[in-house]
Amino acid sequence: MGRRWAHPEQLLPLLLMLLALGCVVALVCELGIYYAVLLRCHWPKLKASAQRGQYRPSAPVLRALFLADTHLLGALRGHWLDKLRREWQMERAFQTAMWLFEPDVVFVLGDLFDEGKWSSPKDFQEDVRRFQIMFRHSTNTELFVVVGNHDIGFHHEMDLYKLKRFEYTFNFTSAKVVSRKGINFVLVNSIALHGDGCSICEKVENDLHQLSLALNCSRQLDLNHSSENCKDKGIFPEYSPPILLQHYPLYRVSDAECTGEDSASPEEKKQLFQERYDTLSAEASKKLLWWFQPRLILSGHTHSACTVLHEQHLPEISIPSFSWRNRNNPSFLLQVAVCPQKNWRALHG
Fold it and tell me: Which DSSP string do the residues of 162-229 spell out, in sequence order?
């Protein structure tokens, strides 16, 4: 029984077909899949109360994208292959979101890096370089970051050098107000709200208190009220109840009440949170709420999603991690906001 051997010219079409199929699969899995998933997302609509005229008809709408806990791997614990894979996933997800949603502003709520608390100056600059490439954006979008415990260390690891290094690199201050389209965002260094009187903690708390006084004076001015205490305070051009942005969540016992596919697993929900480690202390949380009376609080750190109501029904949303190393379904938050009228009712998507 004779054998028939395939000639090279007969194999070439088959090889070309397999190569084309491989390219299509690679394009779909490494590029197209992000569009397929994110096309199901959309900007939230303003609530009916807003549409009935509780904000000025001419008030511009601010579109903001929030993400947290990117945890870029460092030189000490990060394997190059893990870096390559996870960072490619985050980069493609972020760049696809930028192309589809074109937000006005992006906020990253801490733990940009996994080893910022240990990094040498050279390693830190390398991590920053990679972060800036991955999260590049057009000139029509602004990007702001909040410091996290992995960026400068937990309270007992934090020092002035690491804090100043982060602040200088990202134009961040531990108590800062960013105002866009009449919406005030208060960026907080929650790592420094330990309440033990350390020099960094005292300065951050004092700066936050001064910001709260300035915001309150702006509110009084907008309501045509005057006060002798406001003469020397910085005034913001237009007051609206602020949105607090920080890495640590405000104090809560656990994630037991959190629901949804992005919430913690049943086992994690049983674990009680430790103050000053998993969340801010109850004292620091009450202080922030008293000082700023925010319309909304946004946080990260837990790597899982959660929505809770604090006193006076003030909502807080914890944003899940954006890294595939921390969860199998990373995500981000799309939020729209307008500057409300003088009744200062909170309106958010």
Answer: HHHHHHHHHT--SEEEEEETTEEEEEE-GGG---S--HHHHHHHHHHHHHHHHHHHHHHHHTT---GG
What letter represents residue 136's amino acid?
Answer: R
> Residue 143: is it exposed, middle or buried by C-beta count within 10 angstroms (0-12/13-18/19+)?
middle
Phi, psi (rounded to 5 degrees) for 341: -75, -170
pLDDT, tens digit (0-9, with 9 covering 90-100), for 293-330 = 999 999 999 999 999 999 888 999 999 999 988 998 89
Would you say 69 and 300 are in contact if contact means Cβ atoms under 8 Å apart?
yes
Longest dimension (CA), the chain: 108
**Residues 303/327, Cβ–Cβ less than 8 Å:** yes
Helical ranges in the chain per DSSP H: 8-27, 33-38, 48-49, 80-101, 121-134, 149-152, 160-170, 199-222, 266-269, 282-292
Cα dihedral 304, 307, 310, 315, rounded to 10, equals 120
